[in-house]
Model the fold of this input.
Amino acid sequence: MKLDNILLTIEYDGTRFSGWQRQATDPSIQATIEDVLREFTGRKIVLYGASRTDAGVHAKGQMANFETLPKMAPDKWARFLNSALPRSIRIINSQKVAERFHAQKMAVSKVYEYRLMQRNCPSALDPTVAFYPMPLNWEAIREAMGFFIGEHDFKAFQGARASVLTTVRKITRFDLFEEGNGLYRFEIEGNGFLKQMVRAIIGTLIEVGAGKRSIESVQSIITSRDRRQAGYTADAAGLCLVRVNYSHDGVFSGSEKAMPVAGSVAF
Done:
């Protein structure tokens, strides 16, 4: 029997998880969802996620696909999974996509946000925001952000024990929004990100804003390809995967073209 290829749009609070990828002992987002799928289908299900978010990192628009026998209508998987998953993981949408579709391999860009509250203590109500207790020069931070735009070797911002074929990535957009009451939101889009890359970039920018390094030093840090030259790795609590973008033809084929992937497909 032909298998359905089901695409999920997933939202999660990663505070109490070891990250997206299944771990030997610690709880992960992937393992939690896969275990529910296995319980229901009676067979091992592999969930292919678009991004391997780290421990403590959140998502509004993680994308993942899996293959299964057509046991129910594709749009019913979201409701079923939500009935069995912990409250910290929600399936926003489920739908059938092209047989050849792969959530990670066919992504054309990803958008992350980093939320930072400039005040003397963390938020008691929102675990998905980081904080910084000292004054920051936000104009200097904005200026330094420009050095990251474009295609660069980002090895200086890669976390330890990472293994990739290349450390070259292209950043197409990097914005900063002031949202009031001391809350700032960075939004960065690129064709891919290295392990802890966004958090290392944010940590470096915070050090620029705190006067611990110059704006111009950012360029030399990138050129150095040396992680020791860059800033600290910012708290995982503030980082969130917002959206994964795909080309239309990469997701759909035939009759599936009429089915939208809300907020995740670039047309």
User: Anything to note?
Assistant: Residues 29-41 form the longest helix (13 residues). The CA atoms of residues 162 and 224 lie 18 Å apart.
